[in-house]
Fold each of these.
Amino acid sequence: SSAALSNLLLRCRGKKMVVVGDYILDRYHFCDATTIASEGPMMTLRPLHSEQYDGAAAIIARHLGGLAADVTLVTSLADDDISRKAVARLTEAGVTVRAVRQRKQTLCKSRYLVDQTKLFKLDEGTTTPLDSKSLEEVAIFIEEASVDAAGLIFADFGYGLITGPLLDRVMPIIRQRVPIITADVSGQQSTLLRFKGVDLLCPTEREVRQTLNNFSSGLNAVVYELLEATGAKSAMITLGKQGLCMFDQQRHSAPKESWDRRLRAAFLPALSTHTLDPLGCGDALLAIASLILASGGSSQAAAYLGSLAAAIEVQQIGNQPITADQLLGRINSGVESRSQSVRLAS
C-alpha cells in the first residue's frame, strides 16, 4: 500500500550507509548543430552551455543522501581542482568523503548533445590499480566507516579502486559487521565474480551473460549459475525497457534438486514509458534498493522502490540525485497500482 511504502521510506532516514567505488565527473556539453563542415562529412557544433554531475559511486552516495541516509563515500581522487570541488560539493550535499589521492587526474566523461541526443562521449582518465599503501588506506577507511553501518554498496566501475586483494582484505571484517552488502559492476575491467557472499547483486542481463560467457541458456539458469558461483543471496537483473527480474536463492533444498525449485523469480515491468536520458538509472536502482533492504524492507519492496527511482532518473537529463519527495510524490499519485503487490518486511 502507499502508506506502507511511505513508512518504509521514512525508516531510511538516518540509516548509516557506506558506498565504495570510483568517482567520475559527468559533463554534459549542450550544443547547437550549425552546418556540415566544409573539409569533411562531419557536423559542426556551436557550444551553448555545459552542466556537470557527480557520477559513478558519487551519485549512488547522493541518492542515499537524497533519502536522508547518513552516507560515507570511500573513493579514489586526484590532487587537482576538479577533485577538490567534487569533495566540497559532496560535503555540502551531506556526504562524508574518505578518499585516497592516488590518481594523476580526476576521471571525467564528457558527453556532447544536440537537443537531447548524445552525439559522442570523451573519456578522460585511466585505470589506476591501488598500490599496497593505498590499498591499506582504503581498507582502513572501509573498516572505520562500516562500524554500525546498516548497509554497504560496492560500485565497481573498473578504474582500479575495487580489486580482488582489497575485497579479500575487508570482506571478512565487514561481513560480520554490516547486515546488508550489495554490489554492481560497470565496464570491461570489472567482474561480478569478485563479490562473494553479498546480499544482492544488481547487474544488467548483458553483464551477467558476459561474466559467465553464457549467451544461450535461459535467464533463470544463468542467474542460478551466478548465485552459485558467488554465493550471493539474491540478484536484481535489469532488462532495459522491459523492466527487471528479482531472484532469491532458496537455500533449503533437497540434494540434486533442480535449480527451478531453488530459485524464486519475480518480474517487474518498467515503471517509465518514456526515456529522456538512461544515464544513471542503474545507479539509482542500486542505491535505493540497497537502502530499502538495509532499512528492513523486503526484496520485493526493494525492487519496486528501486525501479521507481530508476523511472524518475530516466526522465531527467543528467545524473541527478533522487529525493524522498520525488519517490513519495510518485507513490502518493497512485503509480504503484501499476505494479504487482509489494510485500514489506515488518
Amino acid sequence: MKKIVSLFLSLLLVVTLLPSVKVSADDISGIVLEKEMRAMVDQGIIKGYENGKYAPFENVSRGQFATFIARALSLSESTHRFTDVPVTSNLAAGINAAAEAGIVNGYSGGKFGPHDLVTREQMAIMIEKAMDYMMLAKTKGSLNFTDAATLTSSVSRNAIAYSVGLGIISGFPDGNSFAFKPKKNATRAEAAAFIYRLLEAQKKQEEEMTPDPGDETGKPYSVGRLDSAGNVTKIKSFATYDEALKSLTSAS
C-alpha cells in the first residue's frame, strides 16, 4: 500500500512540474465572419501583422483591398502606373495588377490614393468589376435593404444588386430586415467575406457548368477561361456557335 501511495505522489509531482501549455485564440476567433476571414487567411489572401494580429475590425484601404483581390484572382504583375504608390511599397504589385485587370481605378493626375479608406459601396463596385473579369454570370437580386433609398448612384445600385444576386452581400440586421450601410468604411473582415463569397460563387458556377464527359458528341463549340499564363480551361461545350455566343453575352 505504501508503494502505491509513493508511486501516486511521484506521478503527481511529475505532472505538477510539467510546464503548462497555454492555448490562446487569435483575434479572429469568435467573430461573426470568422469562417470567411479564416478561409482567406488560410489561402494567403489576407495576411496578419508582425504582432500576430489579423485586425478583423480595422478599416480597409484602397491599396489593401486591391492587393486582396489581386491575390484572390492570381492577377499577373503589371507595369507601375501611379505616382503616389512607391515602387518599393508592398502594395504596389497588387494595386498595379488590379488596375490592369480593370477592377480598380485611379484618380485624376495619375494618383491612386492607396491609403484612402474603402466604403462598403465602393467595395461592391470593385467586386462587380471582379465578376466581369472572372466572366461570372450575373443575376440581379432585390435591393430590399432598409437604407436602399440612400443609394442614389445607378452604378452602385447595380453593383450591389449583382452581389446580392450571387449571395455575396447580405447586410446588417435592422429590425425585421437588413441594412447595407453603403457609406460605412469596410473592415478587413467584411473585405474577406466579400472576396470569400465571390470565390464561392465562381466555384458554384464552374460546378454547374462542368460538362458530362460522355456528353460531348456533336458539340464542336466550346467556352473556356483564359488564365494569366495563357492556358485555356474548357468550361462547357455547345452544339452551335449561337449557343456558345449566347452563354458569353449572358455573363456580361
Amino acid sequence: EVNAVPRLLTAIAPAGVTAEQAAYATVGSIALQGIRNTDARVGETVAVIGLGLIGQLAVMLLKASGCRVIGLDVSSKRTEQALANGAVAAFAGEGPAIEEAVMKTTRGRGADAVLITAATKSNTPVELAARIARDRAKVVMVGVTGMDIPRNDYYHKELTFIVSRSYGPGRYDPQFEERGHDYPIGYVRWTEQRNLEAFLDLCALGVIHPEKLTTHRFPISEAVKAYEMILDGKEPYLGVVLEYPNADQPAPASSVVLRSTSSPPSVPAKGTIGVSFIGAGNFARGVLLKNLKSLPGIEYRGILTASGQSAVSAGSKFGFAFCTSSAEEILADPATDAVFIATRHSQHADLVVKPLNAGKAVFVEK
C-alpha cells in the first residue's frame, strides 16, 4: 500500500534518529508549538498541567530549552515520570496544597507560563492555571478541557490565554498543506514542517528521548488490539507504537479467509460461476451484489476494497470466501471465473486488462 503525504508535512529524520523516535515527531510538534506560544525563555519556570504523552514530551522539550519545569497531574506515577524526564518538581493531586507547593518552588512568584496538556471535561485545569501563574503570565491550552475562564482570576493578573492550534502555522491552510506553498522563513520562522524538523534535530542531538515514553508495542498486524486497548481504558498506557516487519521478516498475509468452501480453491465447484469483486462501494453493494445474490449458481470468491475493514464487512455480509489487499490474489484464484471492477474510473483500465490477461471474464461498471 502507498500513503502519499504532502511535501510540507514531511521531514527527513537525521542520521542517528531511530524509527521509534521519529514516530513521535507529530505529537512532539504539537507540544513544541504549545511551548512556542508560551514564549518561554531560558531560566523561566513553566508549569505543565496534565502529564500524559504530550505533557511528558513538553517536559522534555522545555528542559532542553533551558526552562525550569513543574509537572502537575492527578497521577503520582505520571509525576514520577515527569521528574525522570527533567522536571525540577512534580506534584500529584488537587487543592490548595498543590498551589502552595508551586508557589514555594517559584520563590513565591508563580509560574512564568502555564501549559495545559490535560484531557478532561473538568474546568479545574483552567482555574488552577490562573492561581499558579505569576502576574501577566501566559496560559496556553494544548489539551482538551473545560474552558469556562474565571474572569476575576484572569483579570486581576492580566493573564493572556492562548489556544494552541495543532503543530504549527500552516495547519488547516490548504495552500500550505495540500498545494505545497511554504511560508517565507523571514516572516514565519516555525511552520508545522519546521517544527517537525526541530523535534527530530533534538532527538539527533540526544537532548530528548521520546522512546522512553513507549509503554506498549504491537505488530501492525495486531493494530486493532492496540486501538481496543486504548479505547477500553482499563490498562494504563502512554506511548503506543505500531511496528512493521523488517525486510528479513515474513510479511503478514495479504488475505483473510472469511468462510470455508466445500471445494478446494483449485477446483471450481461444478455448475457454478466463481465471482470476485475489486471495489465494493455503495453502487456495488446496493446494485451489483444485490442483483447477483438473486441469481442461482453464483459462488462468491474474493473481494478487494480500499480499506481492509470495508472488505471484511462486505465480504462477510455477502458470503465471499476471502478478502484481500492484493488484486494478484484474486487473479491467481483458479475458482474465480469472472471479476467485477467497481472502483473509481481512473483505475478501470489497468484493472480490466489484468483479469483479461489472466483468462477471466470481466464486468466493468462504466
Amino acid sequence: EKMLFEKKIENDILPALKNDCIKTYIQPKVDMRTGRIVGGEALVRWQREDGSMVYPDEFIPVIEKNGYVLDVDDYMWDKVCYYIKQLEKEGKTPVPISINVSRMHVYQEDFIDRIKKITSKYDINPKLIPLEITESAFTSEESSLYRKIKSLQDCGYRFSMDDFGSGSSLGMLKDEHVDEVKIDKTFVDDIATDKGRILLKNVIQMIRALGIDMIAEGVETKEQADFLVNNGCIYAQGFYYYRPMP
C-alpha cells in the first residue's frame, strides 16, 4: 500500500504543478507584544482536482526522495515573489515572506543562480524572501552549504535555521552562518515542565547573547506566548495567532 501510494505521488506531482493544484499558503509571523504581523512563511498545500487534500507530511518525503521537491520549491519561490510584487504594484508595503529550501538544493550547483533568477524576474529586494533551511540540512553538508549561504548573504539574502533544537546544531551558531533561528515547537510545548521552562529560557538567552534574531514556532496558547515574551523572545508563529491561509 505504501509503495503504491508513493508511486501515485510520483506520477501525480508534476501534473499537479502544471494544473495549479499545488497551492501557496502563508502562516503569518507576529510580534507577540502587539499582535502586529511582521512576516510570513510560505507553506505548500496540494489540493487534488476532486477537492481532496494531500498533506505535506505525506508527499514531501516522497518528492524529496525522487528529486521532484526541486520543481515544487521553484514553483513556490516563483509564486511568493509574484505575490510580493503584486503587493508592491498595489502600493502596499510587503512584509518578508520566508521560503523553504529543501536540503536537496545543497547538492545543486545552480542553487544560487536559481534563487537570484527568480528574485530578478520580479525585481524584488532579497530581504523580502528569507530562506529557511532545516537544522538537519546544516549538519549534513556543512562546507557546501556554507559556501552557498555566504555567497547569497553577500547579495542581501537572509537565512533562517528552521526547527532549531531538533538536532545538534550549536556549532553552527558560532560561525555566523545564520541570520535567524526558529525555535522548534518541542521547546515551546515543554514549558509545562520545570526542566522545559529552564531549557527554553536559557536557549533564548543564548541566542540573544549571540546577537541572532529568533522566532518561536508552534505557539498555541497564551501561556506559551507570555512565557516567551517575558524571557525575551518577541516573535512567533502558531495557531494561537494565525493558521496557514491561502
